[in-house]
């Protein structure tokens, strides 16, 4: 016989009943249903002592021929009366039968109930009376003037009622208590607290007893699995979020697009919120408008096993959705065809299905039926490499048609770190734009307490208290989870394991079990490792194969590991891999979940908190990324026409060689289509490679001839000059031709290669030119050759800057400056040489600025500006010289800004902006002028922001961003324009952070980061781009920190430091992530590394101290932040 407590063991059979009367007009229907839910919750909480019932008129059996008020239990016969008001008082009752118990006049139903309760309370002190007023804005159509007047009249009645019953005659004081609320979440919290206190007053101090058991379906905790609708009775802690999502869905439906995207970090509880919270609410009749019946369909993109639309069609035909469609002759294939080819026709099918469902439910004429479609883990649209862009677009088109039909509500969940992928499907970005997006943040301390204790109470569980300190285990769990915003899945897993180890005689969750598990952070890893190490060696050896089947990794240096489905058939029970899967599925582990045909990781926390899994993924990272690329390419190849297929095969070189290497090592783990794709590519590519090599040989010969010709021409010129004056004319011509080729390489070819962004190509061209001048140095008076040599030194300096060698670049720039100074002195009237001299001063100034020598940089920039002003005045019509002058103003302004002279900087920047606007207006098609204009907008915007004009700064930065988006779209291969775009994303994101729009800032930070990752992948040798990538990681990390996502923030700042180890900002932010998660010692070590790099008190304040003040203002680790702030100041 079981020794666990049973329901009959703990519930008294003679419990008194507490009746809670809910009184309100019809305009607060959702709040009435919330009241009923709160009462049901309290009934479970106090089940040992009381039976608590909600009294609602809609639950009473009303009959024709009688007024509905006749069938309702009078409020004075109940124990607690809850009155809820908003925009109306309701209809007046028949005066001959119903007069106000206190006013004696004609009253509405709500007024009659209120006065009946209040009169009784004044005489007998019963019932207790709670009065609530909703303060949300009242909206409605202005088309019906009579309806508008009726609404205004009702509003006035509410105002008069509140004044009459809650204020003194002269209006100077309140005579009765009432509470206001702005949203459903606030109302639910207020009502539950007030009712609980009133019920507790009815308990005597001697009344104690065990909690009633209401949950009998095993563990009330879900471990690493999400809560489903069946688990709604034990889903707690997300009251505010479930109400906000439901109200957002209602607003979206009113706008004509009933779509909501719930975003949040992995493990934040998005799926549970929607399935066990929002869905459960929507199942209540009248929760939104006149909807009395809500059917639902739940799916994941992976459910279709490669057929997204087919998966959606199957979900719509499921028993809990619209099985009526089968009786209407629809099956998965026919419905999928309609969703794919004509979504509007599919909407007609849904309309038929809902009509049949409503008829079966016997809905009244005014009642409505809706279908809720939940698309869980929408990120699978992007992480499943078998899905083509066309399939994504078709799936989104079907969802959009359903959401805009007026019959279907759609809620999707998405990991926030994949938010930027929305932009790759424009229709999805549009569908989820604006208010349609809901960001689910980490639970508060209070919500964590509910998540821990409320399910336990439903299952009759208690938490052990430490005998020495009196601290309860639930408090320890709450405090540990509160230190990490990503701890929710860990908490759920630990609670489930604690339930498995509960004391059987009394259901107590113990400290001993908690310590045995390894605490919150160690539970997953320790349990997984215990199960794993108990397995035979041959089973353990299958771990890499099994894990690779269950995981994919995103592209790029920061691509994250995510779970993916695998076929159970791939792991037969009689194999080591099958035995490992069985063990990880077992009750003692619960690290995997499976249905009949598929298998997946229970939660991605397994991948991050089990060291063995994390290390194996790191080891296989390159292979997993390559497999993902091959799967996507293979799907495109398989679906292409016969004419297009050859162009989609892998080409000779690295793409093919690494694919064939993977095929050789992992043949049995790859899908058949991938094997076919790589094999076909290899066979086909041999001939293509041979032809390519033949062409390369021809090209190589041509370039060799050109190079030899250049050298030969120079050699011939010198030799022939020595041999005879008769050959002088030929020698001059030969050398002129050679130098013409060099000049082409240094100017025209350089300009053509620069946008490609490959330093190796630029360096190769420049080294050829440099070799020529080393072999044939120009004479002291060979002015044109000297200019070409100086130009080569400018090119060399630019390349060295890109490679991170600032000292080397400065040496090259100074050598070119010396030559240009000689040229300008020789011929002051040569405007081209004067322009060269100005540019050379700017190059030297740029390096000095980068090295921190602001005074030296300003000298060089002013020299360049003086020349640029003279040239522009000499020929005002010369657009290039006007452009150079605008850039020079910007250079000087940048130094003044860095020196703190904001007013002076603004003057210079505005001068540059005036010129840039004129040039861009004169020739709108000129991309360079447009780019310069975007730079000027940024310059002025930066000053406005520093001066506190955030609105003006944002407007200018958005103008800059718009230009750069157009330029980048026009030439995606232009790396400079791509870099410009990433800078603008960061600039606008910075301002949004300042304004508190962290979600908007996060999206822009991610877009900026994605661009910089592509640039570094394009040219890994470019040190400047690596530095820029580090800045992007740090900027994203700071945004995550401000959102309270300290763990992900640490990942980003860590990535920044791996790229730029001496970055001051990254060091500081990295330290912050440790301070805010309770590791003060590690935080201090990072601050110690940063402090020597800070020049003065002003920089100390802006770099670190202001951050501490932000954290203290948010209530994060207040004592620790104050202590660390004092220590930093002292240091």
Topology:
Elements: H1 7-10, E1 17-23, H2 29-45, E2 51-55, E3 80-85, H3 109-124, E4 128-134, H4 145-166, E5 179-181, H5 184-201, H6 239-255, E6 259-264, H7 270-282, E7 291-299, H8 308-316, H9 324-327, H10 332-341, H11 343-360, E8 368-375, H12 380-383, H13 389-403, E9 408-415, H14 426-431, E10 437-439, H15 445-458, E11 462-463, H16 473-482, H17 488-500, E12 508-509, H18 511-517, H19 519-533, H20 537-540, H21 543-550, E13 551-553, E14 561-563, E15 566-567, H22 576-585, E16 592-594, E17 598-601, H23 605-609, H24 611-639, H25 654-666, H26 672-723, H27 728-746, H28 748-753, H29 759-775, H30 783-802, H31 806-826, H32 831-850, H33 854-874, H34 879-898, H35 902-922, H36 927-946, H37 950-970, H38 975-995, H39 998-1018, H40 1023-1042, H41 1046-1059, H42 1064-1075, H43 1080-1090, H44 1097-1113, H45 1118-1130
Parallel strand pairs: 1-2, 1-3, 3-4, 4-5, 6-9, 6-10, 7-8, 8-9, 11-12
Antiparallel strand pairs: 13-14, 15-17, 16-17
Helix pairs in contact: 2-5, 5-6, 6-7, 8-10, 10-11, 11-13, 15-16, 17-19, 18-19, 24-26, 25-26, 26-27, 27-29, 27-30, 29-30, 30-31, 31-32, 32-33, 32-34, 33-34, 34-35, 34-36, 35-36, 36-37, 37-38, 38-39, 39-40, 40-41, 40-42, 41-42, 42-43, 44-45
Protein name: Novel STAND NTPase 1 domain-containing protein
Organism: Paramagnetospirillum marisnigri
InterPro entries: nSTAND1, P-loop_NTPase, TPR-like_helical_dom_sf, TPR_rpt
